[in-house]
Amino acid sequence: EVYSFPGAYILFYLLVAKGRRWIQLTVEEQKAHVMRLLDALEVTDRDKRLKVARAILYLHHFIQTLFLTCCDTEVDVLHWSRHNVFLLYDMGIFTALLELLSMEIDNNQACSSAVRKPAISLADSTELRVLLSIMYLMVETIRVQTEDERPEWIAAREAFKNELGSPLYNGEPFALLLFTMVTKFCSMNAPHFPMKKVLLLLWKTILFTLGGFEELQELKVRCRERLHLPPLPEDSIKVVRAMRAASPPASAMELIEQQQQQKRGRRSRRPLVKQDSLDTYNERDPFKNDDARDEEEDPEDADSGIEGEVDPLDRDVIIQPPPPPPPLRPPTERVNFPKGLPWAPKVREKDIEHFLETSRNKFIGFTLGSDTETLVGLPRPIHESVKTLKQHKYVSIAEVQIKREEELQQCPLTLGEEEVEETQAEMLYLGMLPNLSQYVIALLKLLLAAAPTSKAKTDSINILADVLPEEMPITVLQSMKLGIDVNRHKEIIVKAISALLLLLLKHFKLNHIYQFEIISQHLVFANCIPLILKFFNQNIMSYISAKNSICVLDFPHCVVHEMPELTAESLEAGDSSQFCWRNLFSCINLLRILNKLTKWKHSRTMMLVVFKSAPILKRALKVKQAMMQLYVLKLLKIQTKYLGRQWRKSNMKTMSAIYQKVRHRLNDDWAYGNDIDARPWDFQAEECALRESIEKFNSRRYDKNKNSDYMPVDNCLQSVLGQRVDLPEDFHYSYEMWLEREVFSQPIQWEGLLQNQ
């Protein structure tokens, strides 16, 4: 937004700096100049407001190099940008920008003009983009903590966080205003809204107010302490960070080639080497094309990157002692991984009950219901088994919440009102609840439109409104730059939506399990599962290693260094990175969302089987990154028992990877599938039962007319007719017309009414 307005420099120079460098001004002088900008934002002239808003955005970015000649490094640029952001927040710029944003959202003239236009371009959303850019920079800069924190910055961060999460903006949190923009755009009522900036700001607002995964882990620990539950067996974030990636399992064609090489006696004799991963990335390329492997990669195929598993085709290679290989990395950089399995096994209470029920039926002939203490009549090995299961028993917060909800539903008068803590997640859920399905459908529409596997349709929404220029490119260089911008634009939208959905799912699950279940069910009913599978049904290696960025234009590099001349060769070469963290981040988020939707849901797991997700997920294992492989293996594990014996026999490397990387449930028969016939697939019945529980929860907790069955009934006609009824403000204008239309002109058959009585 700051590249296209040279007039902003002149405006800021005349309005603020007056020939003096920004660094030479005292804090009070800086505040006085910002106050002048704030006053200028309130003018009625739209063009003047836009110039002032651009000057404020200019203060974020380029004021450093123009007025701070001492800032020669990117660190100095970021420091002064951070200083300016906190100064702007302290002067109340965010509140003023919010009022302008609300005016732009309610600008019906601009919306109707955009609807009538055959093609939307950047020019239709100029002011919106400037406002959203400033607000995004403020939210993201204040959210991130640095080492040089000042006490006043820490206080400002907490105040801003509470301000964003509280219902201070028209009685609702700031995130709901952005959700309204998303739904308005997807309903074609405002096609000029810049969705990329809206989604980025929405994601960062949710991340700031609710907290990231580390804050979520701390909340989970405190919640378990409050519920008097045992502590977590391990820190999942640390466990995943310590994992290393495995090489992908060989395909059928690769196995055939290996057999042919074995017959011809041209097998590679090189030793086994450790597999690289994105976590321990070095100078080697971890993203080699698996479809065009040469003989040099045979040793890596023989070693799946999983200790203790040997490919039968290469068994004799390992028996022969190879010469010592040269070290791939210095000894000081060697990563120490924990021995044994990374996860402590877990057992649920119902698993122990099921085990005892089966054992009692076998040895005694009758059961004792949910009694897990009485072991009379059972043999000694069963006693030892129950003892082991109880040692690894895990009670989740969700189980406690479900049990508490059942008690509140059964005894509403005895237990009284539930004390609901007013957390940020609770206030956000309360605001989202009336239009939750619309929000979910809108986000999935945008995700579908931005997916690389989606084909352009005439009736689909246009997400490129804030990237396409008014005049289409006429040179090859301009076309290449626009192509990079369009692809990067779509990747950022996918990244923002995937991160936003995952954050909502995780925070709502911790706040209350039924809040998580309702958003999960909306996602499932809106076809989120096949949408994510469609997203992964592509050349995932190409997507992970895509280079849709122009490094010289990235901030703060473009501020400190001189801008080189862009050529077709430089754009085609891209950056030197071997992978795109943005796309990898999106893929991991989508896999985690899919795990959240299908975990402990038999009918949804069967949807994965019906949609033939196994080969799609198996191709995703080619990405040698530990976290991504972990969530792929989780999805394969839950459906392994339904894929048949032949699939398990042909994919033993994948089965071994699941065993070594995914958490074990001690009596989970995931690898054999002996209980398939005992669990019929009834999607509708399971979802309806879940929906009933959700509606009971929402009615009890959020319905204003709750406990209406226990309220006394007013039988006095005079009292009922004398009650005050809230009517719309304009009702008295049309009251006589309403009487004429609804009362006087409607014939009433009194005889029929008497007969019906």
UniProtKB/TrEMBL annotation:
Amino acid composition bias (Pro residues), ranges on this chain: 320-330
Region (Disordered): 248-341
Basic and acidic residues: bias regions: 281-291
Domain Far11/STRP N-terminal: 6-279
Ranges of compositional bias, category Acidic residues: 292-311
Similarity remark: Belongs to the STRIP family.
Protein's name according to its UniProt entry: Striatin-interacting protein 1 homolog
Species for this entry: Gouania willdenowi
Lineage: Eukaryota, Metazoa, Chordata, Craniata, Vertebrata
